[in-house]
Recover the amino acids of this structure.
């Protein structure tokens, strides 16, 4: 059943209305093409802003924010005893393994997919789409690994797809179907859609579309360390592990992408972390401020958007 977040005035939660107004003004003065914006503190929605032609009921393509939902599903499956992050990847796909793949991928584990430390020289997600019979799993497994897994971060949407494929193998369900009763229904999220591969597996690394308020609920769930309506949907330990740095991202562009990487979450400055997708999609969690910031957009300068969040909204929280 759909559930709306509670609303109140910013000052009721210790946030300056003028800081929000200055953020919106700066966005518009810099002609940044934002589509929506929400600010939550202490579980209350303090501000929501919409730009043409978007509104509260608009579903938005989230691009790589999808990855953070994928890692959440893995956390749920780990809690159910269906797999471990220490499991090797190849045994999940016995029908795809050849001697060459075994030699190439034998050391790859689920945790390496989660942290994008697979050892690839390039993201295989573009390669997998053109394989014979459109077998994305085979395309990933046939892409050479050139470094020991776990040694270096390389942004890898193919790794996120493989997490989805593993979940599909152990549950017999698509990622979308698996999350419905475990995440979407408890949060009151209805109508989620997720692009799938030719075999019916959710894309994992992209393809999820939700409303802005749905995304805000997801951020609030993480801020509450996996608890929702007095129920522990996701273990506190998983939230802690998913949102701490497991590998350096110092080579990434933009200072907020250089703070490290968790389980399909980027760490940020000021103790924050974020699910982020191309063209300016953000679900930011600020534990020290008890706040969540959600943005959808079409922008090229994603760091510029984050700079405005720090400059205006962070200051307004005191």
């Amino acid at each position: 059943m759909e559930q709306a977040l509670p609303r109140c005035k910013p000052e009721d939660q210790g946030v300056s209305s003028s800081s929000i107004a200055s953020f919106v003004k700066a966005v518009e003065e810099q002609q940044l093409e934002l589509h929506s914006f929400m600010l939550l503190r202490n579980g209350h929605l303090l501000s929501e802003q919409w730009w043409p032609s978007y509104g509260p009921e608009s579903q938005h393509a989230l691009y790589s924010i999808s990855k953070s939902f994928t890692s959440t599903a893995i956390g749920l499956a780990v809690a159910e005893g269906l797999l471990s992050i220490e499991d090797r990847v190849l045994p999940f796909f016995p029908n795809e393994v050849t001697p060459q793949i075994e030699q190439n991928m034998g050391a790859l584990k689920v945790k390496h997919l989660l942290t994008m430390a697979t050892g690839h020289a390039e993201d295989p997600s573009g390669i997998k789409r053109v394989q014979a019979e459109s077998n994305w799993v085979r395309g990933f497994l046939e892409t050479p690994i050139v470094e020991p897994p776990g040694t270096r971060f390389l942004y890898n949407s193919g790794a996120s797809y493989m997490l989805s494929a593993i979940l599909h193998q152990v549950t017999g369900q698509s990622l979308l179907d698996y999350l419905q009763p475990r995440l979407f229904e408890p949060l009151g999220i209805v109508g989620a859609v997720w692009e799938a591969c030719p075999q019916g597996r959710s894309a994992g690394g992209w393809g999820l579309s939700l409303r802005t308020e749905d995304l805000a609920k997801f951020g609030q769930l993480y801020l509450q360390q996996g608890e929702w309506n007095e129920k522990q949907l996701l273990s506190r330990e998983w939230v802690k592990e998913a949102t701490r740095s497991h590998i350096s991202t110092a080579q990434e562009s933009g200072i907020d992408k250089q703070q490290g990487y968790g389980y399909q979450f980027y760490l940020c400055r000021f103790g924050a972390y974020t699910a982020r997708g191309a063209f300016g999609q953000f679900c930011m969690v600020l534990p020290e401020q008890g706040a969540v910031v959600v943005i959808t957009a079409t922008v090229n300068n994603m760091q510029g958007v984050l700079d405005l969040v720090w400059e205006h909204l962070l200051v307004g929280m005191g």
About this structure: Residues 30 and 296 are 16 Å apart (CA to CA). The longest helix spans residues 157-171.
